[in-house]
Design goal:
- 35% of the residues lie in helices and 28% in strands.
- By secondary structure, it is an alpha/beta fold.
- Strand 8 and strand 9 form a beta hairpin.
- A seven-stranded parallel sheet has the order 3-2-1-4-5-6-17, with helices on both faces. Strands 10-11-12-7-15-16-18 form a seven-stranded mixed sheet, covered by helices on one side.
- The protein is globular.
Length: 372
């Protein structure tokens, strides 16, 4: 069996490791001994305790890998991916880092590496769908609405994060890019709120977020936008926190000590945003593609798995990632360089493989179509 090294054993990284165990020898690497102990005790996964912020540690733990998964926090993502590429390892990355991934394209090609990036739910599956349709028809517009939320609306935030709190905060401060009439438009995060209705959930609030990522570069579609979904009222309190400076990455001095406000905010928010044991969440995603008067719509409504105790966001993100690892292992996707998920979608065989893989894990994207 091939060896897969999973860097990061958080809620998503752990689900990835457990799913890959069906077809691979898996090693999980993290700095949290309790998380690793649980993976080893309950699933028999080989574990390594290591600080992945250090280049030598990353390169050491992946030296015998056939494939690598990077599920580290976003602020570590770019450097970690660079170390993996320099080691000549094919990789699937879900770190969602702010830097331009294509800056590593030349390095990846030099080392003959396939580096699939942003391979989660959105970005990720949304890109795969977009890439598929853009390949087979002239697409006039692409719109993606996505959110992961707890069923229990617990005051004051009505939100839970299954990944690094700082990565979540990034969504509230990073300027949103979208394409309108063929031109790149940059708007503040949390701008242009709309209310959207979803069957079985009710009305959610959407706002501009920077989720197009690589699509803004790779797809020549006149109108493209991605918006984040939360419970109504979220925008107002997030704007208050942001304008107060609590999301700032710039250091300030407090009693002679320099600190970043965002680090304090993340430290305070994490206990309130952490899902409690057994607390259920859901993921909702809607992708709309319009081509020559016809709208193709994919809807996902996924919920916490009581049997495996996997959060929905971990499932929908993690299984897209593990599907891509299996694609690489089976030799179905061989393109070299930096490969955003839309490149996978451009191949009909790969597109069908991903859809079927997810359906096999009860992550189901429902397709409907009709005249606009």
């Amino acid at each position: 069996m091939k060896n897969v090294i999973v860097l990061g054993a958080g809620l998503v990284g752990s689900v990835i490791a457990k799913d890959l165990l069906k077809n691979f020898n898996v090693t999980s690497v993290d700095l949290d001994p309790d998380t690793l102990d649980k993976l080893k005790r309950e699933n028999g996964i080989h574990t390594v305790l290591s600080d992945l912020s250090k280049e030598k540690n990353v390169k050491n733990v992946i030296k015998d890998a056939d494939f690598v998964v990077s599920a580290v926090p976003g602020f570590m993502g770019y450097s970690t991916l660079k170390y993996i590429i320099e080691s000549g390892k094919n990789v699937v990355d879900i770190a969602f880092f702010p830097e331009d991934c294509f800056e590593l394209d030349g390095l990846a090609k030099k080392h003959n590496v396939t580096a699939i990036v942003d391979c989660g739910v959105a970005p990720g599956m949304s890109n795969i769908i977009c890439g598929y349709y853009n390949k087979i028809m002239k697409v006039d517009s692409f719109k993606c609405l996505v959110g992961g939320l707890p069923f229990e609306r617990e005051w004051p935030y009505e939100y839970k994060a299954v990944f690094s709190p700082i990565d979540a905060i990034e969504e509230y401060v990073r300027p949103a890019r979208y394409i309108q009439n063929g031109q790149l438009v940059v708007r503040p995060a949390l701008s242009d709120p709309e209310h959207e209705y979803f069957e079985g959930i009710g009305t959610l609030e959407s706002w501009n977020s920077d989720g197009l990522r690589s699509l803004a570069v790779t797809m020549k579609i006149p109108d493209m936008i991605e918006k984040t979904l939360r419970y109504p009222g979220t925008i107002e309190y997030l704007k208050v926190l942001r304008e107060t400076g609590l999301f700032s990455f710039d250091e300030i001095e407090v009693k002679g000590v320099k600190i970043r406000p965002v680090d304090v905010t993340a430290k305070l928010l994490f206990p309130k945003w952490k899902l409690k044991e057994g607390q259920e969440d859901f993921t909702v995603l809607r992708v709309e593609i319009v081509s020559q008067g016809t709208k193709y719509r994919y809807d996902l409504f996924d919920r916490y798995d009581k049997t495996t105790r996997a959060t929905s966001m971990s499932r929908t993100t993690g299984y897209t990632c593990t599907a891509a690892v299996n694609l690489l292992a089976e030799g179905k996707f061989t393109r070299k360089g930096i490969c955003p998920p839309e490149y996978i979608g451009e191949d009909e065989t790969c597109f069908s493989y991903i859809i079927n893989y997810l359906e096999g894990r009860n992550v189901i994207y429902k397709l409907t179509s009709g005249v606009v």
